[in-house]
TrEMBL record:
It catalyses: a fatty acyl-CoA + H2O = a fatty acid + CoA + H(+). One of its GO terms (biological process) is fatty acid catabolic process. Gene3D superfamilies: Acyl-CoA thioesterase, double hotdog domain. The keyword Lipid metabolism applies. The keyword Lipid metabolism applies. It holds the Pfam family Acyl_CoA_thio. Residues 89-176 form the Acyl-CoA thioesterase-like N-terminal HotDog domain. It comes from Terracoccus luteus. Homotetramer. Belongs to the C/M/P thioester hydrolase family. Keywords: Hydrolase, Lipid metabolism. Residues 235-345 form the Acyl-CoA thioesterase 2 C-terminal domain. This is Acyl-CoA thioesterase 2.
Amino acid sequence: MTASTDHDHDPDHDPDHDAHQHQDRDQHQRHGTDHTADSPVPRSLAELIDVLTLVELGTAHISVTGIAGQDAASSIGATSARVFEGQSQRMPHGRVFGGQVLAQCVMAAGLTVDEERLGGPRPIHSLHGYFMRPGDDTLPIRFAVEEMRDGGSFSTRRVHAVQKEAPIMSMTCSFQTRADGLEHQVAMPEVAAPETLPSLAELFADSEDPRARQLAESRPVDVRNVEGTMWLPPQGEPAAEQNVWMRTVGPLPDEPLLHAAVLAYASDYSLLEPVLRRHGLSWTDARLRVASLDHSMWFHRPVRADEWVLYAQQSPSATSGRGLGMGQMFSRDGVLVATTAQEGMVRVKQ
């Protein structure tokens, strides 16, 4: 579950590849978005939308042994979990991209927040997750959602992403009915416009390297580094900060939960890059071992993931084989829409 490289969570792990056991989707209720737009959608984006279209399998009931009484399960605060399933994007290295699991957890949790029962929209405002194991991109992932609390304004959910009978990610997230209150924000940095910067597709259009081809052809999000891509040797003086423009390669349906999920997906691409940039490293350095450990995100204001978003990133610290990345996301007109933080394992093999 790595940022930017799409590498696996554990670079020393070598999971076996079980045969892909397909579930019969027709017998379950489909949730999310089936693309039916009039204009053609790029294949990579259509695949992402399909990955974020989850199937509800049913409800898992939690039982507790060793505690006397009929309320044993409720005594630990959970009696059941709604179970969803989603497919995985194929990756060159065979591991599930961490941003995909982030986004699917957001979708699964959001699908349990019943707007009609709660009296109106209640969008996500924060998430905190831990990556625990690498995922196999040939297998689907199941998501068990515990409905922890529905209050007057806030709803809390806990999601476990499970594959091969073991959790690969655990996330807690919160949703809030929008309300009036105090308002302030930091200013957006002044940087070059996205139209003046090359896309990865333009940079690597003629490359024969399979990783470069994947970057050029398969990503559903257009990512443009203001200071230059980290897939080439970094230029200039080492600095623990950078700015990245991003948006999907085509339009998305008008569903706020989907836009939040896609923004979470894209947030995992590059958040550890300031760590590398500070030390003059690039993703092509064969000595590099990087894996995401955790990820937090706060959604401040409404945003569209299919419009340009500036991702201002910094790394305040790297120590003990770990690096910390932090970021602020701004809409093109300067509105702060989200804040992120991620710590990752960052090692340089000697």
